[in-house]
Specification:
Elements (H helix, E strand, L loop, with lengths): L24 H13 L1 H13 L7 H16 L2 H27 L3 H33 L13 H32 L8 H9 L15 E2 L5 E5 L2 E6 L3 E5 L1 H9 L1 H4 L7 E3 L2 E6 L2 E5 L5 E5 L20 E8 L2 E7 L5 E7 L7 E5 L3 E4 L8 E11 L2 E5 L3 E5 L4
Antiparallel strand pairs: 1-2, 2-3, 3-4, 5-6, 6-7, 7-8, 9-10, 10-13, 11-12, 11-14, 14-15, 14-16
Helix pairs in contact: 1-3, 2-5, 3-5, 4-5, 5-6
Length: 400
Amino acid sequence: MSKWPPLPPIHEPTLGRGPATERSLAEIVGTQVAWWQLGFRRRREVIHLAATGRAHPDPDVWTEARLWAGQMLDSPWWWRIVRAVVISGFAVGGVAATTGVAVEFQADYAISIAVLTVAPLAVLWARRQMRTARLINRVEPAEGNPRANPRWVPIVLSVVAFAAMATSVAVIVHTVQVNHEAVFGCPFEPEHPDVRAAWIKHEGKSGNLGCPVGPGGVTAGGEPFQHTTTGVFAITSIVGEFLVPHDLFDVWQTHWKVLGEPTEVPMLDGSTMYVNFQRGHIVKTAGGQSIAVPGKDYQQKQVAGGPCTTHDRPCLVRAERNGTNIHLAWHWEIADAFNVSWRVPSQIVPTSVEAAGSEYTIDGVDPRARYIVEVQACDKRFLRRSVCTPAATYIITPVP
């Protein structure tokens, strides 16, 4: 006779085994994963057959369906609410992160849009899950007695979803008001309609034009301008929108008959700012005064492939022209993305792209034209705007 006591009998698990809270997490997750692994087509078959009061002919598929249905119906009311809220929270985070990065929405917009998208879908999903479980259990009830959960659970989920959606709408309305104030929150707006339209396009108060300062006027050439907190903004005949520091604008107006109209927007050559005009240029060194130089254009000293004189922005180490293509290569530390833009000197709005690496080829350029190229390194942030370096500006001249 064995000295060991007899082992307890082994019982096969039943479909109606205990409440969900008494099962292990691995068992709960395993049942859910097995249901998902049936695939969309087979799950649809199970639901269609259950709706007509029939079991699925495949015993393995039907067993997994009954296990899942029993688990869903065994869940206590509070677990159903928590499950729906947690899954919805992950979905909101995913949608918000995706829209925030892809479109660079600010966090208020991204999260609110995600809630408005996910909340109604989550309620419909929860109702459909329980309806499917009841259909399966009605065909062949699970062994045991699945707990009779109150019917007010869907109502609670609907109320929570409605509250979240109402809050999101309120947040969006508030954010729109704040953004409107950021654009139109100055004591007054530019008087000239063209200047005002451009000022709004550049985001007004919070944009790079700032608030208007004093009344507007016209240049010596009869073109509208407006003093702002960031400089003087004018609409010129050749380059269109033209923003310059106040002192450079004063020098231009003093020497207007000699210089004429600007042919380029202000540019940087390292730490030196310059603007080319029809008959000369104005140059301003860091910490120095603006000086008018009639008779010739400014000659760019910082060129592609030359020494890197500034280290707070990418350095263009190569710019090769080949027919209608310009191949660019720059040096910079690791960044999430690089903004590359190019335009001819008289073009108002540049063409811009986002490059992932440290090289980019511009296609379809005019081989006879001179191009202004800018490269900017950016680091993306979660649900916030990217942080970018100043733009490195270079002149790409035609091949002789």
